Amino acid sequence: MSFVPPPYPYDRLRTLSHAASLHDGGAVECSIGTPIDEPPAFVVEALARAEGAKSYPPSIGTPAYREAMAHWLDRRFGVAIDTEQIAACIGTKEFVASTAHYLRLRRPERDTVLFPAISYPTYAMGATLAGLRPVAVPLRDGRLDLAAISDDDARRALLLWSNSPSNPTGELDDLAAVAAWGREHDVWVASDECYAEFTWSTNPQSILQHGTEGVLALHSISKRSNLAGIRAGFYAGDAELVAYLRAVRQHAGLMVPHPVQTAVAAAFDDDDHVAVQRSRYLARLTTMSAALAAVGIEAPVPAGGFYLWGTRTGSDGWTLAQRLAEIGGIVVSPGELYGDAGSAFIRLAVVQPDAALDRVAQRLHAYGSDL
């Protein structure tokens, strides 16, 4: 039987959107992590100059692009890495979805991709699109339970995905342990770190702090600088692995447009605008955590990220999401979208303006009892 793509997860939320839209001001859309705050003006100006738009950009990334990433990695994580170990990607979702396929060409004897049991669905879909076995790894205290990976799955594994801070849970993985497990079992490790700038409980962390052998770190401009629409990021790590992927991706014609590379390099060279955004997100997380508590949903401010991962004893995520739409006028994601293990939860992205979130919070506080 031919492959039939499943429904796109967020297309399943139409009934929630309709219920929320009946409130004054319409639905407050918090199911998708799309930034709504303004990107830095100097980045928009750099983009508007359209530098290099007439010619094909280098697939690997311009020297200025990769140097900006290298300086940022050093500044943010204390990681000194050569620019030859850094390459551009067209937004990190594209990289997540395609990398298992490219790596399978390198190691065709491996047929399994490991990923967190509660996670963004593209890790599993990337395995499926590559014709590989997607195998969910259970979580223990929010971290990959590496001891739960069977010997057979470890032998067959091509790639292990980590996501820290996690989307959707906001938990931080033990990146040292993840890197060590990959090396011990000869499995490549990809660490999706696109929310690292929004780490609340510790300093930002990267798997590259534990060496580059056998590992890749993946970063994006989307969340850091409110630039999801220009589709740009980078991957960095193991020199041989980066060289292989950048060659394959060059043959595939994958290129970040030159004007985008110029603008993104400027964004990564500046940290002040990120500090402002951090303050916004933390305040919104605090506001909405209290609002959910008012209706009996436990959703503490996370260790990282800009999502609240909430649950209420005796309820499933779809029921909670429906009631929040009806009572609060807000659209959130049922946790089942992120794996069966998340079915009792909802995910709320604090990406709407303060006024909209305050409006929802007032409704929930006024309701004043369990949903």
Write structural notes for this entry.
The chain has 371 residues and is of the alpha/beta class. It folds into two domains: 9-39 and 273-367, Aspartate Aminotransferase, domain 1, CATH 3.90.1150; 49-268, Aspartate Aminotransferase, domain 2, CATH 3.40.640. It contains twelve helices and 14 strands. A hairpin with a 2-residue loop joins strand 5 (139-140) and strand 6. Helix 1 runs parallel beside helix 11, helix 3 packs parallel to helix 9 (258-268) and helix 10 (272-294) runs parallel beside helix 12.
List the helices and strands and how they pair.
Blueprint lengths: L13 H8 L6 E2 L11 H8 L14 H15 L8 E4 L2 H15 L5 E5 L5 H8 L3 E5 L1 E2 L2 E2 L6 H6 E7 L11 H11 L2 E5 L22 E6 L12 E5 L1 H13 L6 H11 L3 H23 L12 E5 L5 H12 L1 E2 L1 E2 L10 E5 L4 H14 L4
Helix pairs in contact: 1-11, 2-9, 3-9, 4-5, 10-12
Question: TL;DR of this structure?
Answer:
The chain is α/β, with parallel strands linked by helices and 371 residues long. The protein is 39% helix and 15% strand. It has helices at 14-21, 41-48, 63-77, 92-106, 122-129, 151-156, 175-185, 239-251, 258-268, 272-294, 317-328, 354-367, and strands spanning 28-29, 86-89, 112-116, 133-137, 139-140, 143-144, 157-163, 188-192, 215-220, 233-237, 307-311, 330-331, 333-334, 345-349.
CATH fold-type name of the largest domain:
Aspartate Aminotransferase, domain 2
3D shape: globular
Structural class: alpha/beta
Number of strands: 14
Question: What share of residues are in beta strands?
Answer: 15-25%
CATH superfamily of the largest domain: Type I PLP-dependent aspartate aminotransferase-like (Major domain)
Overall tally of structural domains: 2
- For the record, what CATH class of the largest domain applies? Alpha Beta
